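In the design runs reported in the main text, the only information available to the sequence generator was the tokenized backbone. The following block is the verbatim input for one such run; it is reproduced so that readers can re-run the procedure and compare outputs position by position.
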């Protein structure tokens, strides 16, 4: 892997660490490398733990790409949504251990995992697309509708409300909130618990539970790519 992310296999757990600048921007190259890391995890039959740098999971898509042209923005959104689809249907358990802020596509990474762990602190988590002038894409709406608590859906997607970690847990972005010093130890502990499951049953049950949602998400990705409203 390059400097954009690292891949480390520890006790049959694949730790993927995003490291792309101050906000861990999700760029086309990072997504390509993310997929390469997932290929390795799949080959290693490893539980996946995705994390970031101190204080930051990700601030979202690379704005240089998003503002370059409509075509480049649409291509990056499709690439990112396809990554979410892969994570949601991944054959091994996926954990996101967020060390801080998770905004826009960063928050969608949380919504694409089987287990989400965040940290206490002055961090913001949420979907700020509407606040920065972007109409939420079909794939984003599909993911949010499936993964967020229904009472928070309008607040998150339409009103672009941002949340501190404990309220983000109520909204459905996180499952567990721990002290910053405990994040990776807790993530590895939870990864070992998941690794102890019957992983074939885990995969088949995940796909069965999410079958309709994954089909809806695939259709939404194509709508976004076609520029459908």
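Verbatim output:
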């Amino acid at each position: 892997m390059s400097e954009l992310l690292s891949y480390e296999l520890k006790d049959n757990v694949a730790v993927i660490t995003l490291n792309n600048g101050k906000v861990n921007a999700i760029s086309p190259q990072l997504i390509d490398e993310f997929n390469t890391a997932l290929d390795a995890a799949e080959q290693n039959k490893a539980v996946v733990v995705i994390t970031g740098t101190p204080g930051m999971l990700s601030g979202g898509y690379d704005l240089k790409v998003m503002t370059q042209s409509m075509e480049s923005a649409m291509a990056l959104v499709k690439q990112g949504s396809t990554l979410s689809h892969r994570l949601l249907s991944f054959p091994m358990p996926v954990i996101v251990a967020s060390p801080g802020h998770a905004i826009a596509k960063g928050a969608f990474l949380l919504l694409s995992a089987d287990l989400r762990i965040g940290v206490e602190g002055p961090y913001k988590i949420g979907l700020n697309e509407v606040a920065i002038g972007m109409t939420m894409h079909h794939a984003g709406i599909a993911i949010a509708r499936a993964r967020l608590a229904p009472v928070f859906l309008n607040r998150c997607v339409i009103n672009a409300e941002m949340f501190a970690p404990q309220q983000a847990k109520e909204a459905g972005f996180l499952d567990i909130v721990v002290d910053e010093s405990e994040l990776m130890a807790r993530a590895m502990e939870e990864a070992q618990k998941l690794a102890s499951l019957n992983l074939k049953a885990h995969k088949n049950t995940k796909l069965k539970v999410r079958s309709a949602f994954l089909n809806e998400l695939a259709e939404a990705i194509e709508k976004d790519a076609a520029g459908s409203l």
